[in-house]
Amino acid sequence: MVRRFRLRPASRLRRNADFLQIRSLGKPYRCQFFALFSRIRAVEGTDVLCPRVGISAARRVGNAVTRNKIKRRFRELFRLHQHELRPEVDIVLSLRQPAGKASYEELEQRFLHALKFKNLLKRNEAPEERSQGAE
Questions:
Q1: Are 31 and 114 in contact (CB under 8 A)?
Q2: Residue 120 · residue 81 · CB < 8 Å
Q3: Helices of type H across 25-103
Q4: Long-range contacts for 69-78 (Cβ within 8 Å, ≥24 apart)?
Q5: Is residue 8 a contact partner of residue 75, using CB atoms and an 8 Å limit?
Q6: pTM to 2 decimals?
């Protein structure tokens, strides 16, 4: 079975209330490039059965071009790895200034480490399986 690596509109957090609720729960994972906040949704009563992401970048991160470039990179990371995440996960990424100068590989390594550290990956699937199945 070939997986589709699309980022559906249902996979994006848009409401400020969702951002605030996720940020208020638990301890975040912090690194020099971002802070990752997460929550596990209750499976019953939700119509969304996929992981969701919200990305925020303050003005201190850089100008509009830099902020949008970093946000595109993290959306792409989420898009490629969304099939490895538990379906009931909500993630908020708060970006930091050094992310603008980091390479894509550095960001990917930190992002995957954060997901593993916060225990957001599916139990039976490792990140290496995605690259083999996509060919």
A1: yes
A2: no
A3: 64-81
A4: 69/100, 70/95, 70/99, 70/100, 71/95, 73/99, 73/104, 73/107, 74/34, 74/107, 74/111, 75/7, 77/107, 77/108, 77/111, 78/7, 78/11, 78/51, 78/53
A5: no
A6: 0.82
**Signed CA dihedral, 51, 75, 14, 22: sign only:** positive
Distance CA 109, CA 51 (A): 19
Placement of tokens 């099939």 in the chain: 83
Q: What is the pLDDT of residues 64-118, one digit of tens each?
A: 999 999 999 999 999 999 999 998 899 999 999 999 999 999 999 999 999 999 9
